[in-house]
UniProtKB/TrEMBL annotation:
Residues 147-204 are annotated as: Disordered. Its EC number is 7.1.1.-. It catalyses: a quinone + NADH + 5 H(+)(in) = a quinol + NAD(+) + 4 H(+)(out). The keyword Membrane applies. NDH-1 shuttles electrons from NADH, via FMN and iron-sulfur (Fe-S) centers, to quinones in the respiratory chain. The immediate electron acceptor for the enzyme in this species is believed to be a menaquinone. Couples the redox reaction to proton translocation (for every two electrons transferred, four hydrogen ions are translocated across the cytoplasmic membrane), and thus conserves the redox energy in a proton gradient. Belongs to the complex I 30 kDa subunit family. It comes from Candidatus Aquicultor secundus. Residues 31-145 form the NADH:ubiquinone oxidoreductase 30kDa subunit domain. This is NADH-quinone oxidoreductase subunit C. Residues 147-168 have a biased composition (Basic and acidic residues). PANTHER family: NADH DEHYDROGENASE [UBIQUINONE] IRON-SULFUR PROTEIN 3, MITOCHONDRIAL, NADH DEHYDROGENASE UBIQUINONE IRON-SULFUR PROTEIN 3.
């Protein structure tokens, strides 16, 4: 490969030692590693000039949590980015913290712990970042539930929308029968009544 390959900078043996899959996408690479090799591969990337930590995100699967890290090199001419992926089992959701390498990982790891329950070993202050410290459960896991959560499946939502669409518009309120049946009074009679009333007032 050309000098754009990350293996040509830093300790290529350390980078490649724990890598299971390498995918080249655009100006970057996606590297998949075992969780035991995550810190070693990340350290080699840091030495290779990847000075910026952008984020870590999680995806919940039935038996595991998949983690995706994105790091970036501002020092390289082509501004290369790398996605570093690993997986932790739900039975033991632990992985090494990358805060010792990139301080920017601090709050990202706390967020992932708060919402997915991943424990980052070596994190300097691993506690919830959004929810109260005594909160039970991890809201972005698919098996999460609480007493205040409403779950509506897509089928029910579609039925509710269809029912609302087919529902006839509400009829306008009817006027009282007395008002409807009363004949309209001719204007000359109305004027005569007014004159009669005014006259009676004067006589009194």
């Amino acid at each position: 490969m050309s000098d754009e390959n990350i293996m040509n900078q830093g300790n290529s043996e350390e980078i490649s030692a724990g890598i299971k899959i390498v995918e080249e996408k655009g100006i970057g690479y996606t590297l998949t590693v075992e969780r035991e090799d995550l810190f070693k591969a990340a350290s080699a990337l840091k030495e290779a000039g990847f000075d910026l930590f952008l984020f870590v995100s999680g995806i919940d699967y039935p038996e595991s949590i998949k983690l995706t890290y994105r790091v970036y090199s501002s020092k390289r001419q082509n501004k290369l980015a790398v996605m570093l992926k690993t997986e932790v089992p739900k039975s033991d959701p632990t992985v090494d913290s990358l805060v010792p390498l990139w301080s920017a990982a601090n709050w990202h790891e706390r967020e992932t712990y708060d919402l997915y329950g991943v424990i980052f070993k070596g994190h300097p202050d691993l506690r919830r970042i959004f929810l109260p410290q005594d909160w039970v459960g991890y809201p972005l896991r698919k098996d999460y539930s609480d007493d205040h959560m409403t779950v509506m499946d897509d089928g029910k939502k579609d039925k509710d929308k269809a029912a609302a669409k087919d529902k006839p518009a509400a009829a306008a309120p009817k006027e009282s029968a007395e008002k409807q049946d009363a004949p309209e009074q001719p204007s000359d009679i109305a004027d005569a009544n007014e004159v009669s009333t005014n006259g009676s007032d004067k006589n009194e």
